[in-house]
């Protein structure tokens, strides 16, 4: 279980996504109550297991550095178009939790 209230909210936001949903780190931060805390979202994902981390991309649509192939494979399996190292076009549910 996450150690901070913010981490718990990040988990909640990400667990509320459905296959094919894509959010940016910044959107997750805003939905978790801390706009501008995109890096903290990345740190939370890096320290967590069991979350569908592949549904979170950079604001430009770029996939996670060092995990591009795995993230592209998982997103494509959910019907998300990926071109190279980016979600194309960047998509988002934008829905609050």
From TrEMBL:
Pfam families: DNA_binding_1
Highest rank taxon of the organism: Bacteria
Domain Methylated-DNA-[protein]-cysteine S-methyltransferase DNA binding: 5-80
GO biological process: DNA repair
Cross-referenced Gene3D superfamilies: Winged helix-like DNA-binding domain superfamily/Winged helix DNA-binding domain
Gene Ontology terms for molecular function: catalytic activity
Record key words, sorted: DNA damage
InterPro entries per the UniProt record, alphabetical: ATL_DNA_repair, MethylDNA_cys_MeTrfase_DNA-bd, MethylDNA_cys_MeTrfase_DNAb, WH-like_DNA-bd_sf
Region (Disordered): 74-97
Name recorded for this polypeptide: Methylated-DNA-[protein]-cysteine S-methyltransferase DNA binding domain-containing protein
Species annotation: uncultured Acidimicrobiales bacterium
């Amino acid at each position: 279980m996450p150690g901070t209230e913010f981490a718990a909210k990040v988990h909640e936001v990400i667990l509320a996504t459905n296959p094919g949903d894509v959010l940016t780190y910044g959107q997750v931060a805003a939905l978790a109550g801390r706009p501008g805390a995109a890096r903290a979202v990345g740190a939370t994902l890096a320290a967590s297991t069991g979350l569908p981390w592949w549904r979170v991309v950079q604001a430009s649509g770029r996939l996670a550095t060092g995990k591009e192939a795995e993230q592209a494979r998982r997103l494509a399996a959910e019907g998300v178009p990926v071109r190279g190292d980016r979600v194309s076009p960047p998509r988002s549910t934008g829905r609050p939790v």
